[in-house]
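Q: Please design a sequence for this.
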């Protein structure tokens, strides 16, 4: 079995317009729609009086006649969420800079902007704001923040490499958890692949019998773009909880060219938020949907400071994988014993298993993962390799 390496790696991202796993025919139809949109913008002169630098995407060079908004949305479709949002914000600034220009753009919108495109712009700006917030939080040194409780690592690496933190809010009914993991650069692609292949989660996620905690269902409801997904996760919980369920909108993107990072934004959603979300299935008993917000951040280890000195010098690690989330389990009281079980046992075990599987993926020991990666090589993992290579060139 061929090991997965990260000598050249790219990250995959998602957009809300494409609705299925990317196949070559899907890309053809989607590209055709993009060209039609560009032609509409060209004819209407949408925002073309604003002078912006045209930038090269990974697919092609946007033609000079493309509007800034079209360029921005192309960035998003190429999994560059923050780059897209930066350009869209410039457009917004220009719209209010002059009454005459603002009126002209309003007229243009009345003639040629479709509702779908407006929704996409709103979606990009909303998700970018959420992403910037959690990235800023993860860049902060948790060791210097007294609000975090530090939890010992249980299963992967040592305290030099794995740092787990937690805190509770609102009378201990909401839990916030953070994990920082130092890794070698060649582990980045296997970690990304393990995270992306959600259909294989059930093959490695652990469970507990006392107290009972089991991931009884992990299902990918939809695939958008290269790697953004809609996931349904059902967990059988210990007393006094009934079964809990969450539908996660996972939006992956890279900001390599600007800040040298790759990230995945995670937000729960429900039927009223997204038509793809199914109603709760109670055939196996009472089930409650919970709120979940967080994400993953992949970046270089800071060269300064003592927090990661041993990871850099002793273990020769070069990158940090950070994961943060807050969860509202929808219950008025959470027993201290349950909080301790989650923070002291569940998170450490889950994270350790995740990193162990990623290590096996790297060494070619996970047959199903190897087959999944190979089957998506042309539409996904070749691109991942290319983007990661660009990331390494920038940060190292």
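A: Design:
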């Amino acid at each position: 079995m061929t090991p997965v390496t990260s000598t050249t790696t790219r990250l995959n991202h998602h957009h809300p317009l494409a609705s299925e796993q990317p196949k070559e025919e899907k890309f053809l139809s989607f590209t055709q729609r993009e060209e039609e949109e560009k032609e509409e913008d060209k004819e209407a002169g949408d925002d073309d009086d604003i002078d912006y630098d045209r930038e090269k995407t990974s697919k092609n060079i946007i033609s000079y006649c493309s509007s800034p908004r079209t360029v921005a949305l192309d960035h998003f479709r190429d999994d560059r969420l923050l780059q897209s949002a930066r350009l869209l914000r410039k457009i917004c600034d220009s719209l209010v800079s002059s009454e005459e220009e603002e009126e002209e753009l309003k007229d243009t919108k009345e003639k040629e902007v479709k509702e779908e495109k407006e929704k996409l712009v709103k979606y990009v700006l909303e998700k970018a704001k959420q992403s910037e917030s959690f990235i800023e939080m993860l860049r902060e040194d948790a060791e210097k923040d007294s609000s975090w409780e530090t939890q010992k690592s249980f299963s992967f690496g040592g305290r030099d490499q794995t740092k787990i933190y937690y805190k509770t809010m609102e009378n201990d009914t909401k839990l916030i958890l953070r994990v920082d993991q130092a890794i070698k650069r060649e582990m980045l692609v296997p970690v990304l692949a393990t995270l992306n292949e959600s259909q294989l989660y059930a093959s490695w996620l652990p469970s507990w019998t006392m107290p009972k905690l089991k991931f009884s269902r992990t299902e990918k409801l939809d695939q958008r773009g290269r790697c953004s997904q809609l996931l349904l996760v059902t967990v059988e919980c210990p007393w006094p909880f009934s079964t809990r369920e969450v539908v996660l909108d996972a939006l992956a993107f890279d900001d390599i060219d600007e800040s040298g990072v790759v990230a995945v934004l995670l937000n729960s959603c429900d039927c009223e938020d997204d038509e793809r979300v199914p109603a709760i299935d109670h055939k196996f008993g009472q089930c409650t949907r919970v709120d979940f917000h967080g994400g993953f951040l992949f970046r270089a280890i800071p060269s300064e400071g003592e927090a990661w000195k041993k990871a850099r010098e002793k273990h020769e690690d070069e990158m940090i994988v950070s994961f943060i989330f807050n969860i509202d389990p929808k219950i008025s009281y959470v027993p201290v014993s349950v909080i301790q079980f989650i923070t002291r046992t569940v998170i450490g075990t889950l994270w350790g298993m995740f990193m162990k599987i990623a290590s096996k993926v790297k060494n070619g020991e996970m047959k199903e993962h190897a087959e999944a990666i190979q089957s998506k090589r042309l539409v996904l993992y070749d691109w991942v390799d290319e983007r990661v290579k660009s990331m390494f060139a920038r940060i190292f």
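Q: Thanks. Anything notable?
A: The first helix runs from residue 24 to 44. The longest strand covers residues 212-224.
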